[in-house]
């Protein structure tokens, strides 16, 4: 595509946004590096789309500043911010062809016809829609329409691309296909991309860093691996991961640096657990992801025999729902060929290096 030699980092500085007495974002700060792919992840109503719209200039901020490419754009119009946006709805002009939809903004801006043709041709080839250029939106599938919407953004000489849940209206297979295409586009263009979704799989597969949001606050901003393996609190731990992390209430007990988690009849030595601050005995909640529970022969001599309640076959894997000695239900991911059945038992153990511990109040990671 055309050159993108402008600096295109994004900085959100102390931004407040509210509607009447309802505060949506308060003193929010976020720095996004040039060429970085950031995903804003969270449940509906957490403020992620509000933040994206503020960066785009579609919403005014009550306080704070937004900088793009080293320039304060807080009060600039969207067209002057050097951004391109892809919406959840395709927002295509129904009477225009694909070519017309992709070139419309460039024609309005007075760009020479030869340059418009060059950009449209390049973007269409990149998105594999060259054979669709003379069709109208009504003749396209949902996935094809979204490719056109992405292509309309690509033809602009933008340094920052904003995506507002672009795949949520598509079926599962199309979401996977377009997710791969977006990842390839980022690798090819090296543009800064900010992507809003409530789909954790999209976040984990696309992002350089994920900003997990709740209640207008960024709970954790880190790499997908760090967010998944070391969630900062119970909200992040429960929201990221499918199925969700298992939680077991209990206590940390011990003395002289020799600690263990005790929950009912379950005792787990904590040697090897990386505490965030000096550990002390007291109430705690244990968290462990289904794939980190050691099962069967891998559970070792310290295994407990967990009664099996239910099995969910998932193809290559199966999700086995068991019951703790304390009565709490938890899930274990095992090989799809494993010989397990409801009514039987499964030997399980919990390695300290794969656990998460949270306080039993605010739910912060210990």
UniProtKB/TrEMBL annotation:
Keywords: ATP-binding, Nucleotide-binding, Transport. Pfam families: ABC_tran (PF00005), OB_MalK (PF17912). GO terms for molecular function: ATP binding. The keyword Transport applies. InterPro entries: AAA+_ATPase (IPR003593), ABC_transporter-like_ATP-bd (IPR003439), ABC_transporter-like_CS (IPR017871), ABC_transpr_MalK-like (IPR015855), ABC_transpr_MalK/UgpC-like (IPR047641), Mo/tungstate-bd_C_term_dom (IPR008995), NA-bd_OB-fold (IPR012340), OB_MalK-like (IPR040582). Residues 10-240 form the ABC transporter domain. Belongs to the ABC transporter superfamily. NCBIfam families: PRK11650.1 (NF008653). This is Sn-glycerol-3-phosphate ABC transporter ATP-binding protein UgpC. It comes from Alsobacter ponti. The gene is ugpC.
């Amino acid at each position: 595509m055309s050159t993108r030699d402008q600096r295109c980092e994004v900085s959100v500085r102390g931004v407040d946004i509210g509607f009447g007495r309802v505060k949506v974002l308060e003193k929010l700060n976020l720095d996004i590096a040039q060429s970085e792919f950031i995903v804003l992840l969270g449940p509906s109503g957490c403020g992620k789309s509000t933040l994206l719209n503020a960066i785009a200039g579609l919403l005014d901020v009550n306080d704070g500043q937004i900088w793009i490419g080293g320039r304060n754009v807080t009060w600039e119009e969207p067209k002057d911010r050097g951004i391109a946006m892809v919406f959840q709805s395709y927002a295509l002009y129904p009477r225009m062809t694909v070519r017309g939809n992709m070139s419309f903004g460039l024609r309005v801006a007075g760009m020479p016809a030869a340059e418009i043709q060059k950009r449209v041709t390049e973007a269409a080839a990149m998105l594999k829609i060259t054979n669709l250029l003379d069709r109208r939106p009504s003749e396209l599938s949902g996935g094809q329409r979204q490719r056109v919407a992405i292509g309309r953004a690509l033809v602009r000489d933008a340094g920052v691309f904003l995506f507002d849940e672009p795949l949520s209206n598509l079926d599962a297979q199309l979401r996977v296909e377009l997710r791969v295409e977006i990842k390839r586009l980022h690798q090819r263009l090296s543009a800064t991309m900010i992507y809003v979704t409530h789909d954790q799989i999209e976040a984990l597969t696309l992002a350089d860093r994920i900003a997990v949001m709740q209640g207008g606050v960024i709970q954790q901003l880190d790499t997908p691996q760090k967010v998944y393996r070391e969630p900062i609190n119970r909200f992040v731990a429960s929201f990221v991961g499918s199925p969700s992390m298992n939680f077991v209430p209990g206590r940390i007990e011990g003395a002289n640096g020799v600690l263990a988690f005790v929950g009912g009849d379950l005792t787990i030595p904590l040697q090897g657990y990386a505490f965030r601050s000096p550990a002390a005995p007291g109430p705690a909640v244990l968290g462990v992801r289904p794939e980190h529970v050691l099962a069967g022969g891998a559970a070792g001599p310290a295994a407990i025999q967990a009664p099996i309640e239910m099995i969910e076959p998932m193809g290559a894997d199966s999700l086995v729902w068991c019951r703790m000695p304390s009565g709490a239900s938890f899930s274990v991911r095992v090989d799809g060929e494993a010989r397990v059945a409801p009514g039987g038992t499964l030997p399980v153990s919990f390695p300290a290096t794969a656990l998460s511990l949270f306080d039993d109040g605010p739910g912060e990671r210990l």
